[in-house]
Amino acid sequence: MTIGGNITSFAGLPVRRFEPGPVGRRDARRAGQDVAWRIGVDFGDGEDRFAATLDALLDAVGGATVRALVIGSWGEPHSDVPPLHLLIAARDRLPSLRALFVGEMTHEECEISWINQSEYAPLLGAFPALEVLHIRGADGLRLAPVRHRRLRELSVESGGLPAAFVRGLCDSSFPALEDLELWLGVQEYGADATIEDFAPILSGAELPALRRLALRNAEIADQLAEALAAAPVVARLRSLDLSMGALSDAGAEALLLGQPLTHLRSLDLSHHFMSEDVAARFQQELPGAAVDVSDEQGADEDGFRYVSVME
Amino acid sequence: MTAPLTVIGIRGHRRVELFRAAAVAARLPEPAFVDWRDVCADRFDIAPGSTVRLESPGEDAEVDRLLRGADRPAEHGEIVGLAAWYAGLLEAARRVRRRASGPVQPPVGDLAVMFDKRRCHALLRDRGVPVPDGFAARDYEQVRAAGWGRVFVKPAHGSSASGVVALALGPGRVSAYTSAALDGGRLFNELRVHHYTDERHVAAIIDRLGADGLHVERWFPKASHEGRVFDLRVVVIAGRASHVVARTSRSPLTNLHLGNARGDLAAIRAAAGQRRWAEAMETCERAAACFPGSLHAGVDLMFAPGFGSHAVAEVNAFGDLLPGLLVDGRDTYEAEVAALTAAVVA
Question: What ipTM does the predicted assembly reach?
C-alpha cells in the first residue's frame, strides 16, 4: 500500500485548502472557523513561497481563528526539512492552534520514506497549548526530551521510524497524551529501534492518560505483541492497534496467552500474517470488542512478511 | 469516384476498423486501406487526391521489425531499437507523403516532433505551454549529475508508459518505478510496475534505454482523486479540447496499458472547479496548436495536488484511441471524420 490520497478531515474538522490570491482570500474569509486549513506549495517552490502562503492565510482568515493546520508539501520535501521555524516564528499569530499535521502528502508528492523531517522539541515548546500533532515521514525525525502538558494525540506515520526519535519520545513526558500512534516501518527504511527502545512506552510510566496505543506498520510486530502480552500499559488502554505490520501466529499466540485483553473496546490487527484459526481466536476471546483481523497477507516466496507502507 | 480517404494502418486493427466505421457512418465512401507492411516494402499506391490518414503502426511485430530494419522481430514486450524505429517511421511516412497528392494526416513534420519527446518538450516550452523542466540525456550518469531529486526518465522515442522510469535520487539511495525489466541482458516492458532500489540495477536499465536517447523531466507531482493519482488524456480535435479521460493509478505511472482504470471525470472536473478546468483545457488546445497541421492530438495533462497548477506531459500523434467515449454523441473517430470533412470542404 502507498498513501494515494489526502485526508479530508483532521482533528474533527473538515480540511479546506487555502489558495493564496484574491479569490482564495475571499473564500477563506467566508469559510469560518470550523475548518482545518491546509497549506502547501508546488514542487520546486521554496521556503519563501511557503512563508508567503502562511502569511497570506493568517492575514486572510485572522490567525486567531486558526485551530487546526495541515501542512502539505513545502516544495522539496525529499531534500529539505519542513519549515517548522516559520510556524514557530508565527506562534503569536496562532494563539488558538490546537492541531497540527506536518507532511500530509501523497506518495506522488513524496514517498513517505523520502520525506525529510526534523527536530520537534522547539515546535512543541513554542505551542504549549497544542493538543494534536501528526507527522508524516521520519527521515531525520528527532525529539529532544520535552514535557508537554496538553498534547492529547501524537501520530507519526513512517516507513522507518528512527530509534533516536523513539528514545526522545520515551525520555519525554506527556501527561495528557491519550492517543499514541507510531508507524514503525522496516529496518531497510530506517527503523533501527529495537524492542528494548519501546520499553518505557510499554511500561506506561510517563503516559498516565494513554487510552489508545497504535504500533502500526511494524516489521517487529511479533516482538511488540510478545512484549504487550505482559506490558503494564495495556491495562489502561481502550484500544490497541497492531495493524499494517508483519504480525504472525508467533506474536499473536503470545498475545493470546498473556494478560487479559477483554477490557479493550477495539483491537485492530488488520493486514496480518496470522493463520485463520489464530485470527478467529481473538474474535472468540474478545466478544465485547471490535476486533479487526481483516486483510490477511501471505509471505512472499522467500518467507518475507511485508508491512503495509515502506517506500 | 475516387476514394477521398486512405488509411495507412495495421490490417484488422481496431483503430482502422473504428475509423472506417466512422467514415461510413458519415456517408463517406469506404476509405482505401494500405498496410504499413506494404509501405515498408514500397509496394503500395494512393489514389490521386486522396486525403491520407496515418494510423499507429504499433502492436504489430512485423511492422515493428520492418520499421527498425531488423533481422528478427522483437520478443513480446521487448524494448529494443527505439531510435531505429523512429527513423524507420519517418522514412515510411515520407514515402507516403511522396506518393500522396492530397494532404497527409498528421503531417510528417508533426510526427517527427511528437515522436521525439526532447523536441516535443522544447517546442511546447518555447511556445509558453507549461511543461516541467527537462533535459536530454544518454545514460544514468547524466541523469544523476543533474542533481534533481525526483525525475521522470522517458525514452525519447517511446510510446505509452513503455520504458518510462519514475526516479527518486537521494544521497546513497535511489527509488525507481517502471514497467521495464531486464531479463538476460534484454529489456522488456511488462504489464506491472516494478520498484527497484538497487542503484546498479536502475543504472543498467537507464543506460540500456539511454542508447536510443532519453528525455528527463522533473517529476511533476500529480493530483489524486479517491486515493489514486491521475492525469488526463485530452484529445484535441480541430483546435478544440474534445474527448477527455482521466487515467488513474496507484503507481506514479498513469498509463492505461498498465492495468490502470479510467477515473470519474465528472467528479474530477468538479473537484478542479470551472475556472481551473477551463484553463487546463485551454493549455491542451495551446499544446495541440503547436502542431497546426494535425487535425487531432492526444495531450496528456497533469494537475498538481490541489489543482493550483497544471502541466503538459506529452503530446501524442496517435492518442485518440478512446473507444466508446462519446461527446455530443460522437466518439473520437466520428468527431475527427467530421473535422476532416469540414477541413477538406473548406
Answer: 0.85
